[in-house]
């Protein structure tokens, strides 16, 4: 313990060079990486000078994207050039025939993932950095989400400083929170500055309150006030979705003046398909499409080109409703106003697309009791805990079904064929019911199902239940008669299936409607309740009838 | 039968007036509607003149949106004004306190639907026409989809001629096909002319071939050729999504010239956030953002402002991939090129949003064996037939499970408690497995799951299966022991649940991966196969162990 690198500063370099050499020769790239992480860039530079070219390249692979430029700045120009050349050669000739990165990146996500995993495996982390350099931040986010936690942290270090913000924006909530929590504050604030206000607001909402507070404090006053006003709206409203980068104009100016003003700005925010016309008190007056500006004569007045019948979005409108409007009216952007009609900001289609994706993930994953922001590679313990809840809920319903069966133990003992056939009755009911349920849940989500037409739908679904009930009752009865040679059992199962399919149709309509009326999301709990009903009705009808008739 | 309206032309009006009067006084608005449908507008006008004001208004309600203006043109100006006034009064004072349409339309879909249904009920169809007049075509489409077939046809007639095309575009495939099939060809062609090319292509693809052919023939040659080239790409590719309304520029012109050219055009197509730069041979060179045009000085050359690194979309790219790119890169529009690099058209975000919605509907409805284009109010017989297939598939799996149970009939006869508990084992496996399955299906859809990380995921899911298996095995065992007072059965069910949860985790990962490898959509068939496996394994493990130990 007498010569650990940190403690003895007199003759550290030699020892550390030896340590590093040994680690690199033994392919212990992770240990080398940890060692380098504790050192000052200048020290790393002096270490590098003492290594062989191959070791130098291997060591360089272990530097994260933020440290590397600092280390390079301490090296001589000649060594820097040499190193860049060596690194290049090292990357275009991978050791064991893995796919080479020859400038042009393969566009298949599968190949990219393979490349990242190979690079991790061989400790050639710079290959990942180079791949990332050519990829869109959203794709990088996708790759990060495809990795388990430890690998993800290593790869995350390879994202260049200025792009971390953009990658963060594209990550799912849970992954984002976890990666942000591991970043040091300075780095996080730097990333935060690179985000659009609406994305930054999302990030702050995902972080612990104290961290969010610190990020806010690091912003300048104007930006902070803006962020705070955006933070005051719930995440799932127009206010939570909006950005504040809109271009505002007054109605009394001419197109020529406007164009001069726009040229002075030099740049317009992305997705600017409309400018917003406001009055002296900053109240929303109408929209001015950029198309109109492009095609209008310079002497035209803005008031002649603007459209005053474009409905603005109230800041407290739910984001689902916003998404539906964008989708139905094919909008790219829309103004957001407060209760007094003042223009607050604008919502753009890219954020709406995210809302739509989240809705769909919510509907799909919710059916299995999963959260749409779930990290596919969350730690086993955390995942187990979350899923256990859903299994527990299901266990209650399973025991309810078992209890119903238990009521007829005596009957089952006499006619064991009933035990063999009873899952069929329950299962057919569950399938038929979930078809109806799914249709109704979608109808509720799209607003096509209201109090006016539920009766019609109920009748229609009961009709379908009747037809399919009759059909499959006959089929199952025939099969049961062939199997057990017992006509009575055939008759009993036929009646039970018909009853259960009718009940499934009714439950499929009624259960989600009741749930949404009392404020429970039917997409989440609907199918559990439904299958409980179809199980219980199925077992009860089948075993009950059998008890009446056979005993 | 001697004086039917069509046959006797000498003294028809008096009789028909009487017929109409009687129908209206008896509130038989549907019959009145059918009668009016057979008449020439001039005849209807002469009939109207002979009615009392209230009857006149009632009769007018029954005219469809295309006939009404023709009828009105035959009336005297005075009567026309009077009628407009009466109709207005009639609509603002609904008979039985239903929600009045006081100019400002209620924005709740629920209220709108109620209004339509009330209007249908009272035969005041013009109220629907007035409501539709203020609604976005997409909303009208939504309302149409909320109605059963007969009501839908009546309401459809109330859509004004010029808007039918836009409403058609927003309808789901099945509903669209049905409504279009009922329209007369002339009307359909008129509507087709109002559609954007990409939407028209969609419509033609949904119609019978002969009808599509007739629509194409009615277009002028240039339009027809354009449509035919678009029809040559499959619906689910970039070529099938694209439109041909892009603005093309050459790189050697100056911004000033470009602006003059744009002003000459007077109008730009919607969603024009980019112009496309092409060369002499119509090959794609790059994009020019309209933002850049707005902020650039007139003397700047297009070649200085254009971006050449914007990757165009190949026409044969799958629409899923296009949607993913739009989403990840926050695009509003993108150029589409053919194999030779020639610019064919462009894809805009509104069509991409439709793709995303369809994907999500497909994933959600597919799980229940439903088609995403399904009409919620399709006729009972048609719906029954489609759903029967899914029930039939499920029946096979249910019989497989029953067969496994049947193998252990002897055991069940000895220990009837097993029959009571066995559904619990199967059900827990099914729930746990579908959680894993759902995650994997999403991972495959987003491209986050590839051959590189499936092993990691499999291990993780097995870990979760082990933890939750142990937890719930203990819980269920304890409950079973309390219930039946039998420690052996408790032990058996614990082992069976643990085995089934491990098997569920493995199947949840492996089944969708195998399916997607052999080209079956796991979102459609995954859950059926999975629950078959968990049912069989669950019953087999539980009853098999019981047979070994208890007998």
UniProtKB/TrEMBL annotation, chains A, B:
Record InterPro entries: CBS_dom (IPR000644), CBS_dom_sf (IPR046342), Mg_transptr_MgtE_intracell_dom (IPR006668), MgtE_N_sf (IPR038076), MgtE_transporter (IPR006669), SLC41_membr_dom (IPR006667), SLC41_membr_dom_sf (IPR036739)
Keyword Nucleus tagged: no
Positions with biased composition (Polar residues): 1-12
Pfam families found in the cross-reference section: CBS (PF00571), MgtE (PF01769), MgtE_N (PF03448)
Chief localisation class: membrane
Domain CBS: 306-364
Ranges for region Disordered: 1-20
Record's keyword terms, sorted: CBS domain, Cell membrane, Magnesium, Membrane, Metal-binding, Transmembrane, Transmembrane helix, Transport
Membrane topology: Multi-pass membrane protein
CDD domains cross-referenced by the UniProt entry: CBS_pair_Mg_transporter
Cellular compartments annotated: Cell membrane; Membrane
Source domain of life: Bacteria
PROSITE patterns the UniProt entry points to: CBS
Bilayer-spanning residue ranges: 388-408, 414-441, 462-485, 491-515, 527-550
Subunit structure: Homodimer.
Entries under NCBIfam families matching the protein: mgtE
Family membership: Belongs to the SLC41A transporter family.
Functional note: Acts as a magnesium transporter.
UniProt name for this protein: Magnesium transporter MgtE
Source species: Thiorhodococcus fuscus
Gene: mgtE
């Amino acid at each position: 313990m007498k010569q650990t690198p940190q403690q003895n500063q007199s003759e550290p370099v030699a020892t550390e060079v030896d340590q590093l050499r040994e680690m690199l020769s033994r392919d212990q790239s992770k240990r080398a990486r940890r060692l380098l992480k504790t050192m000052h860039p200048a020290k790393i530079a002096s270490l590098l000078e003492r290594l062989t070219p191959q070791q130098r390249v291997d060591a360089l692979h272990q530097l994260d994207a933020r440290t590397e430029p600092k280390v390079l700045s301490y090296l001589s120009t000649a060594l820097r050039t040499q190193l860049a050349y060596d690194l290049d050669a090292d990357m275009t000739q991978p050791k064991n025939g893995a796919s080479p990165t020859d400038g042009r990146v393969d566009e298949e996500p599968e190949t990219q993932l393979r490349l990242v995993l190979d690079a991790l495996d061989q400790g050639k982390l710079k290959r990942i950095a180079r791949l990332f350099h050519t990829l869109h931040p959203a794709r990088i986010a996708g790759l990060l989400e495809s990795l388990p936690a430890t690998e993800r942290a290593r790869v995350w270090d390879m994202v260049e400083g200025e792009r971390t913000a953009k990658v963060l924006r594209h990550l799912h909530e849970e992954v984002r929170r976890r990666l942000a929590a591991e970043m040091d504050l300075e780095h996080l604030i730097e990333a935060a500055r690179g985000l659009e206000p609406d994305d930054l607001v999302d990030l702050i909402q995902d972080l612990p309150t104290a961290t969010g507070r610190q990020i806010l404090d690091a912003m300048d006053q104007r930006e902070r006030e803006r962020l705070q006003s955006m933070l005051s709206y719930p995440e799932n409203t127009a206010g939570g979705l909006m950005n504040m980068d809109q271009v505002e104009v007054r109605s009394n100016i001419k197109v020529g003046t406007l164009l001069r003003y726009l040229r002075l700005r030099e740049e317009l925010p992305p997705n600017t398909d409309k400018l917003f016309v406001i009055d002296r008190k900053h109240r929303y007056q109408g929209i001015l499409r950029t198309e109109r500006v492009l095609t209008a004569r310079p002497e035209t007045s803005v008031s002649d080109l603007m459209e005053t019948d474009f409905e603005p979005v109230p800041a407290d409108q739910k984001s689902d409703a916003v998404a539906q409007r964008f989708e139905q009216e094919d909008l790219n952007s829309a103004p957001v106003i407060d209760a007094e009609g003042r223009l607050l900001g604008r919502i753009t289609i890219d954020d709406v697309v995210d809302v739509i994706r989240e809705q769909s993930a919510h509907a799909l994953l919710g059916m299995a009791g999963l959260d749409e922001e779930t990290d596919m590679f969350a730690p086993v313990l955390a995942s187990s805990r979350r899923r256990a809840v859903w299994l527990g809920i299901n266990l209650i319903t399973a025991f309810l079904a078992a209890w119903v069966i238990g009521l007829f133990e005596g009957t089952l003992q006499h006619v064991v064929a009933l035990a063999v056939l009873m899952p069929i009755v329950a299962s057919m009911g569950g399938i038929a019911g979930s078809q109806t349920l799914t249709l109704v849940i979608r109808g509720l989500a799209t607003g096509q199902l209201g109090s006016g037409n539920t009766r019609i739908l109920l009748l229609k679904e009961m009709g379908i239940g009747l037809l399919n009930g009759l059909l499959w009752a006959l089929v199952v009865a025939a099969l049961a008669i062939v199997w057990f040679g017992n006509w009575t059992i055939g008759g009993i199962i036929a009646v039970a299936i018909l009853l259960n399919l009718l009940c499934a149709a009714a439950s499929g309509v009624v259960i989600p409607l009741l749930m949404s009326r009392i404020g429970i999301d039917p997409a989440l709990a609907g199918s559990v309740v439904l299958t409980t009903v179809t199980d219980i009705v199925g077992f009860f009808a089948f075993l009950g009838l059998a008890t009446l008739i056979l005993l």
